[in-house]
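Worked problem 6 (solution included).
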Amino acid sequence: MSDNYCINSAADLNKPSIKIKNTVISVVPWAIVGALLWAGIFVKPTVAIEEVIKPAIETRDKIYGVHLVDNDNIWLCGNYGKILKSNDGGRSWIIQQSNTEHHLQDIAAWDANTAIAVGNEGVLLTTTDGGDTWAEMDVPKTGVADKLLRVHTYSGGEAWAVGEYGKILHSDDYGKTWTQKRENEDVILNDIIKLDNDTVIAVGEFGRILISMDNGQNWAEVETQTDNASSLMALDFKDELEGVAVGLDGLILRTFDGGMSWQQSTQQDYEMHEHLMDVVWDNSRKGWVVVGNKGVWLTADESFSSIEAGSFDKVDLSWHTEVESTEQGYFTVGANVGLYDPESKIFTKTGNKLVR
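Solution. The predicted structure is:
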C-alpha cells in the first residue's frame, strides 16, 4: 500500500507543471501573432539606400570637343548633348543641361561665361552665364547633311564653324546670328582657323585646303605638294606664317607663307601611320603636339627637326579627337579624357568626380 501511495503522490505532484507547460505552448503562437500584428500597425519600416553617384564621364561617353579658357576653367562636349565644365582645372566636373540629344562635336569659348557648342544636325548652342543655361541658335541648313564639326572663337565676338557639305559659318556677335560664307559643296570640312589678319583657312576631305584673304568673302583652293590625298582633320598656326595641318594615315603638312603653299613632312621623320586628329602649337614649350587614333601622340620642336612619338597608354589604345596645352601638360579628349605629362610620360585619366 505504501509503495502505490508514493507513486500516485509523485504523479499528482507533476500534474501542475504539465498544465503550465501545456498552457505556455498553447499561448506562444498567439503571442507571436500578436507581436507581429503590433509591429505591422505601430512599427514603420525604414530602408537605408546608399546613394549611387554617377561619374561625370561614364564609360560609354565619347567626348569630342574641349576648350581651355584658362588653367581653371575647362569646357567639354560629347555624345548625346553632353556638356561638362570644370572650374578647378579638371579635378571635378559640373554636368550642364544642353537641352539637346544630338552629339556635340566641338566647343569653344570667349571667356568663362560665354561659349558656343556645335554638333550633329546643325545644332549650335550658346551660353552667356557660364553654362547654367544653353540656347539653340538658328543657322543656315541644307536639310540633308548639316553636321558641324569644329568651331573657333576670336576677339570681339567673332566665331567660325565648319562641317558637312562644305559649310563655313561666321558670326561677329558672340554666336547670336550666323551667315554662310561659301556655297554648299559635296565635301566635308573638318577644321577652320583665322589668322591675325583677314586670312581664314579651312581643311577637309581628300586633302582639301581652302583659303580666304578677305575674311571669308572669297575662297580659293590651295594645291599641296603631297602624294597623299588623305583627309585633313585639323590645323593650327604658331604665327601668321608658319602652320601645321594633320590628317588620316599620319599625314602632316607644313606651311611657311600663311597657308599659300603646303609641303608634306616625310613619314620617315616620325614613322607615324595612324590617323592624326588634332594639332596645336604649344607656345609655352615652343613646340607642336599632335593626337590621334590608338592613343598616339607626337611632339615636335618649332622646326620639326626633333620629333618624338608614342602612345598615352600601351594597354588602353583609345582614340583622341582634340588636345589642349596647359601648364600641367596636354589635356586630351576622345574615347577617354586625361592629362598627359610630357616630362614624366604619364597619362592620367580624369572625369570621375562630379560636383552636381
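Discussion: Helices lie at 2-42.
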